[in-house]
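Researcher: Re-running this chain for the archive, since the previous output was lost when a drive failed. Same request as before.
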Amino acid sequence: MGFVITLFVQGVRHLVPLLIGVAWFIFRLVLTAVASLFRGVPVATDQLAREQLEAVMQSGRLPSIYYRHFYWAVRILAVLVVILGWICWSFATVYLLMLLF
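Model: Regenerated structure tokens:
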């Protein structure tokens, strides 16, 4: 039994940096998604472009291309959260089984 606990502790020691790396990757993905919403906002130099930009800002709606970037970022984030949850659930199940036996 002591060998199993030692093996589990060694596994957790290697798992913690992996989880920190995954969390950092997800954090950067969210920041990239938010930045992509505002990256292409044009700087109006002529009167027509300035009026169009003001109309977009007053309506409170971004052009559809920004929604598309955000949609894909949210989908990728959801997949990563599901994978991370599955990994955590697997390790928790193994840990509970080790405690029982």
